[in-house]
Amino acid sequence: MSFELPDLPYAHDALASKGMSKETLEYHHDLHHNAYVTTLNKLVEGTEWAGKSLEEIVKGTYQAGAVAQNGIFNNASQHWNHTQFWEMMGPGENALPGELEKAIVESFGTFDKFKEDFAAAGAGQFGSGWAWLVKDTDGGLKITKTENGVNPLCFGQTALLGCDVWEHSYYIDFRNKRPAYLANFLDNLVNWENVASRL
């Protein structure tokens, strides 16, 4: 069983009016994400990871930590990360469901404080990586940041929301203004219904 690049859940130009251009999605999804999938399929062929689920590969290669598996982990985790990322955004109005709002307010005080802390995590991630809203192992909500392709699966957490802060995610539209990209992501791009469904 080989992995495949999932279709975007919307047209390439569907997010353009919200600050993520057609060109960004063409590069990010069609080239970058596709490269992770293609490379992963080549790397797992003939190994113990052939036929395993994406989640099994991410958890197994991260915990194993063997140098020979770093390439497998990097490409598997980035395939998983991006598959979630496309689903976590949407072209609709993206209203905040009450259940999710209640959970966020209980954990962070206010929705604005959550956005402030999430944006700070993303802006403060040195180099490439991700900012996350996760349900932690104790059931509470927490904001984290991870380097490169590391993701919440590695720590037994549930990813509710993730934002890619690799430069290829924002440089076409925002150049080097990562904080502006993060603010736009939170204000305009997040599909809060999808985030709520992950609770």
Show the helix and strand layout:
Blueprint: H1 22-44, H2 54-64, H3 70-87, H4 98-108, H5 111-124, E1 129-135, E2 141-147, E3 158-164, H6 171-174, H7 178-189, H8 192-197
Antiparallel strand pairs: 1-2, 1-3
Helix pairs in contact: 1-3, 2-3, 5-7
Keywords:
2 domains, Helix Hairpins, minor pseudopilin epsh fold, 199 residues, mainly alpha
Outline the structure in words:
This protein has 199 residues and is mainly alpha-helical. It folds into two domains: 68 residues, Helix Hairpins (Orthogonal Bundle); 100 residues, 3-Layer(bab) Sandwich (minor pseudopilin epsh fold), CATH 3.55.40. Helix content is 50%, strand content 11%. The mean pLDDT is 95. GO terms for molecular function: metal ion binding; superoxide dismutase activity. Belongs to the iron/manganese superoxide dismutase family. Keywords: Iron, Metal-binding, Oxidoreductase. Its EC number is 1.15.1.1. It is an enzyme of class 1 (oxidoreductase).
Entry summary:
It catalyses: 2 superoxide + 2 H(+) = H2O2 + O2. The chain has helices at about 20-45, 55-65, 70-85, 100-110, 110-125, 170-175, 180-190, 190-195, and strands at about 130-135, 140-145, 160-165. The chain is built from eight helices and three strands.
Which CATH class of the largest domain applies here?
Alpha Beta
Output the structural class.
mainly alpha
Strand order across the biggest sheet?
2-1-3
Number of domains: 2
In DSSP terms (H or I, runs of 4 or more residues), the helix count works out at 8
Q: Rough shape?
A: globular
CA-to-CA gap between the ends?
30 Å
Order of helices and strands: HHHHHEEEHHH
CATH superfamily of the largest domain: Iron/manganese superoxide dismutase, C-terminal domain
The overall average pLDDT, rounded, is 95
The percentage of residues in β strands lies in: 5-15%
**How much helix is in the residues?**
40-55%
- Please describe the biggest sheet, giving its number of strands, its sense, and whether it closes into a barrel: 3 strands, antiparallel
CATH architecture classification name of the largest domain? 3-Layer(bab) Sandwich
Protein name: Superoxide dismutase
GO molecular function: metal ion binding; superoxide dismutase activity
Domain Manganese/iron superoxide dismutase C-terminal: 98-198
EC number: 1.15.1.1
